[in-house]
Amino acid sequence: MWSHRVAPGRMVFRTPHRLTITITRTRRSPEGDINDVLIKTLAEAHANTNHKLEIVHEMFRKPQDVSRLLYYKNMTQEELWLDCAEKLTAMIQQIIEFAKLIPGFMRLSQDDQILLLKTGSFELAIVRMSRLMDLSTNSVLYGDIMLPQEAFYTSDSFEMKLVACIFETAKSITELKLTETELALYQSLVLLWPERNGVRGNTEIQRLFNMSMSAIRQEIEANHAPLKGDVTVLDTLLNKIPTFRELDEAIGPASVTDSNTSNGNNTFIIIIQNDGGVGEGPV
């Protein structure tokens, strides 16, 4: 057998029986390599800031604790919202840690980091809620208990409608059956959405957004067929972003204030320290 190169990246082998075998080496584009690095980095960031999916699914199968379910159903409206705010605060802290691991995020201006987190954290909380949804029972993993949608209802019709919209949005993401990696990429995409009001340094944010868009497109095209006609899973995910905006605006005032505090104002903002640390604090 002998061989020779006929073109860069191509090798031709000829066997004693005059059989010719041609092997062509294909080079990946730089964009594909960047996508692979971003996909791996965000998948790890997502895994390190969420409960393992195996634990979540184990909780789905756990027998319902009726006494604890009644405990939540018997909460007053104020008690329920305070408890939800506490759970949301814990989730947002994990979202902040996730954001810090997005390549390029910590190089944005401090003002842009704060604004993106302040306006995007609740949106990412809905995305994360989707992986905690059990569609067969219409319930969500709330701490260490599965609670049905009705457990979050109050006598306030606006709040009932808000809860229903949050559940419907989260369920619609769950129904797309995204992988954990795709959820990670989607969170990055939502957080870096460059059209938020007041964002400075749009060029850099747009660049980071474009990188996330390229990576999630590569991942979804490899894993999902179009849903209907030319409508893709990515199209559907992008179309949900305006709904996130609406829910964020609706819940905003209720989620940051508590009129029962001593000074009547328990508003929290996201703080990014001078040393790069991100946290929360009262104002």
From TrEMBL:
Q: Which GO terms describe its molecular function?
A: nuclear receptor activity; RNA polymerase II cis-regulatory region sequence-specific DNA binding; zinc ion binding
Q: Where in the cell is it found?
A: Nucleus
What are the GO cellular component annotations?
A: nucleus
Which intervals hold domain NR LBD? 34-277
UniProtKB keywords: DNA-binding, Metal-binding, Receptor, Transcription, Transcription regulation, Zinc, Zinc-finger
Similarity-based family: Belongs to the nuclear hormone receptor family. NR1 subfamily.
Any idea what this protein is called? NR LBD domain-containing protein
Q: What is the lineage of its organism?
A: Eukaryota, Metazoa, Ecdysozoa, Arthropoda, Hexapoda
